[in-house]
Structures are given as structure tokens and as C-alpha cells.
Fold each of these.
Amino acid sequence: MAKTSRKAVDVIVLGAGAAGLMCAFTAARRGLKVLVLEKANKVGKKILMSGGGRCNFTNYSVDAGNFISGNPHFCKSALSQFTQWDFIELVKQHGIDYEERKHGQLFCLNSANDVLAMLLQECEQSAVEIKTHCQLKSVSALSAQDDKRYRVSLIQADGESGNQLELDCHSLVVATGALSVPTLGGSDIGYVIAEQFNLPLTPRRAGLVPFMFSDSMQPLCERLSGCSLEVEVTCNGSQFAENLLFTHRGISGPAILQISNYWFPGDEIEINLLPGIDVGEWIQQRKQQQGKTRLKTALSQLLPKSLVGELEKLCWPEHAESAMAEFSDKRLLEIAEKLGHWRLKPSATRVIVQPKSL
């Protein structure tokens, strides 16, 4: 039979991910009694899958310009109080081996579990209490005269039954993630709580997500599924040089996931398929040196053959069987322009949402 129990603490943190655990032991170090509530059966699921299981925990170069915020000054303030070097020092204190990858990104050398174990150890040393299997029922405000300002009602699963808990706190931290990965615990519960307390919400849209297409690009992507290459992709003044991956639904890869943060429906993205190369000059040289060679053959030295085959259909179908010497210089420069500035208009981003509510 379910029973109801009551408890009071200084701080309740909803969500035992990276942000929730960091917040919990930081608050506990200030002498506060902290309780973390997690709805999943275990904590830190997203930590364990991040970075391909190696957890990309920080970056050597971190500043406010790396963050998208309605108030850029908030980022400046937060980053000045706790820097990447502070976190790196914490990692070193726990003896975690790490490595630098592209663009100063730092990853665990062994496993993402090293970072999760570090956060849990810090919580344990700071006497943070963590409860899992917690199904949130409601959050309510208490009387302004009370020292405790919020009441959190929930059911904590216990086998086939569950215990009903009523928890009072002075400070409530919502670190429940968002809608991007529902299978790892993400939901819209944070938005629901914010609306309940009349907190303003910015318009929500997907970020760090692949693009999909509804035009002729869709079957092209299907045919190229699995093909990848290094590109530069630009949208609304932002640019990223990373890997692009064609999938059966559209395009993905680090470059696309990054630029999706700056894309809005109706926008075009521009892809440089050959970054760091003056494509016009390179093609002209190939024409002079290998005039009897087909353009498709020449470009296959730089790009995946399957991609070049599709580009031929798009950009120079009338010269598919022609040697490069038969192209006019003007025509080659037009093709080079397309390779360096391939403009595409995604129809949507690919994201699966499963909204929940209190």
C-alpha cells in the first residue's frame, strides 16, 4: 500500500544530469541540505552517451560567443565565475585521463562513466541525497511567510507500488533537460513549471539536429546515405568547418548539427564542398594538365565518387561524357562556384518530441 511521507530540505534539484549534479554539490558545499530527484532508473544517462561514450566534457576555448542567448551578458557573468579551467582542474583531481580532439574539444580517454563517477563522488562527499524513479505529480508555492517556499509532490516507484512524497524546500532548481532526447529523460516539464509560475518563455525550436528536405534533395540524400566529407557550412552569418553526413532522411554530421542552431524555417544554408581550395583555379589547372580527363574523374580525386556522380547530374549533365578540354572556362568557373557555394533549402529539422505535462 502506498504511503505518504513528508520531508523538508533547503534545495531540491529536479533532474540528475550533468547540470543537476553540478548544481547539487555546488549548493551543498555552501552548507545547504540538497535533494536531487530523477525520474529515470539511474542518473546521468545523457552523460554516458555523450561524445560517443567518451563524454566531450569541455573545450579549451570557451567564451560567451560560443553560446546562443537572449542575454549574452548572462553568459559572460556565468563563465567568469566558473571557467573551463575550473572543470579541467576538477577532472585532474579525480585522475581522469583525457585527450584533445578537433577545435580544442576535450574527451575522456577511457569512458564517459569517469565523469559521471566524478560528479557522483562530489555529491557523496557533499552529503547530497539522490532519489531515482521519481514521478513528479505537482509543484506548488507555499505561503510567503514560510521559510520553505515550494512543495514538490511525487511518487517514488518501489517495485509494483510506490511511495507518495511531499517535499518542501526554499529553493527549487529545474534541470530536467529539454525535448531533444526523450528516451534519455528529456521532456517539456521545465516549460510546464515555468508557465505555471508565469515565467516568460522564449520561442522553442530544435537545435543541434539534422536537416530534412522535401524537394529533389530528398532522394539524392537517400542515394548518398552513408557518404561523408569535410565541409564548411554557413547560415545567417555563422559558419562551421566540420564533417557532413548524408542520411536516408537528409543531411547530418557535426557541421550540420552546429549550423542548425542558426537556421530558421525558410532559410537557405550554403555548403562549401571543398574548403581550403580555390576550386576555380584547381579546375582550370586540371583542364590544362589533364584536358582529356572527364570532370567527374578529376573531382573524384577530392570528393567521394558517389557524390561527384550526383553533382554531375545537378551541375553539368550536358557535359557528362565530355573531356575537360571541351568545357569553356566560363562554364568551369560556374561549376566551381556551385561546388564552393552549394545552396540548399531544408524543409525541416528532424526531431522527435514527446510532450509531457504535470
Amino acid sequence: MTERVYAGRPRPGNNFELYSWFFMRISGLLLILLVIGHMVIMHIINNVDVIDYDFVAARWASIGWRAYDWLLLFLALLHGANGVRVVIDDYVRRKGWKVFTVAVLYTFTFILLILGSLVIITFEPIGMGS
């Protein structure tokens, strides 16, 4: 693998950072649209007085709303984790600590993504309309 030097720091010859940069821009734009849609639906169209378990259960009866919420979860977790990875890369100098902190970050991100996905996928409403 060839190394290039930019601003005194060696950079690997692969395109991971370029793809990461593009991901942050694209996911950021998608997140803005998804969050604005979420805010309008949950806080402007519907009053907070009507948002309860039955409201969410009725909303998640549609695969479209589950997909919407899962995409919001997925993009927010990956966008945030990628941002923290960049901060770790900038501030953690020792290679061993960098590997350790990035591994912890990826582990927590993976666990949260799996748990959030399981909740969205396996949710079954109970006691609606009570």
C-alpha cells in the first residue's frame, strides 16, 4: 500500500476517507430531511397529547413507517459514529489507543444498531385501544 503525505500526516492510499467524506454529506442531507419530517409529523401535525403507545403502535402497523424510523436510526448512528471516528483520528495519537477506542466505538454502534433494529422489526402491539 502506498502512502501519501498531506499536511505532514501520512495517509493510506485507499479511498476510505473519501467515501467517508461523501457518506457524511449525503447522510447529513438525508438526516435533515428525515428529522424535519419526523418533527412535522410528531410535533406539529400531532399534538404531544395524542402521542402515546397506541399512537406508535398504530404508526408501526405500516411497514413504511417502520422503514422510515429504521432509516432514521441507521443513518443517525452511522453518521454519528463516523464523526466520532474522525475526532478519534484527530486527537488520539498512539496507535494502540486509537485501535482500542475505534473498536469500542464500532462495538457500541453495532450493538445499538442491532438493538434498535430488533425493536423496530419485532415490535408487536399489545392491548391497543384500551
Amino acid sequence: MNTIGHHTCANRNGNTYILQNAPFPSEFNKEANKIPFLGGGYYFWDTNPEAAHFWGENHYKGNYFIYECVLNIEDDKFLDLVGSRKDMIQLRELIDKFSRKIGGENLSLGEILEYLKKLHNLDPNFFDVDAVRAIDSSKS
């Protein structure tokens, strides 16, 4: 998968700092007990600067920066929950297989992906995924 990524971040410490250090990971917020939409990791809008600006306006009150870069991810390490029916089925099968252990249908997608990442840490051949593409259906 080869695409242009747009990473929206708060404009703290100035543009030079951001250009030297971006992208920034989104991580589990222990205080709010909130797991990011697709679990911890780096978030990019896939060739969608409009969505990146929308996110910046709503989440950073207009004080944001968009870092643009080329993303090139090996197809076999890319879980596409937007354009690959095969990948959607694969994830559904994993959820069904581990539903008792991970809490079934009550968990968010981020919680499920975090569980699968933990299993990958135990067995590097299991769920060997570097990137997940999904549709953000939130209103903000």
C-alpha cells in the first residue's frame, strides 16, 4: 500500500519541532481510561487533507499542524478494513475465535486490536500487522 498520509497534531513547540519529531503516537490515556480508535499507534488520514483539517479544527481548536508524508506499507502487513473484504472477514474470524477471552461484542475496535497486538508480542507470526485502515465514523 502506497499513499499520502496526513498526520494532524497540536501545534506545540513550533513548526520546526513538529517537522523534526512528527509523527506523534496516539496512546492509551490511563487517566480517562480511553484507548484510541484503532489502539495505540500513529494516525494518518489516507490522502485526505480535508479530514485532517476537520480533525485539527475540532480537536485542537484550530491550533494544529498537518504533517504530510508518503506511507509505503507492505501489503501483507496491512489490514484494510475499508477496501478488503478478505481482511474484514479475517478480523471477524479472530474476534469470534477470541471473543470469550477479550470480552466479546462489548469491546471497541481499539481494545480488540490492542489484544491482538499483545498476542503478536507472544507469537511474532500471529497478527503480523503494521498498519490498519478503517473509516472514522465519529462526528468529531
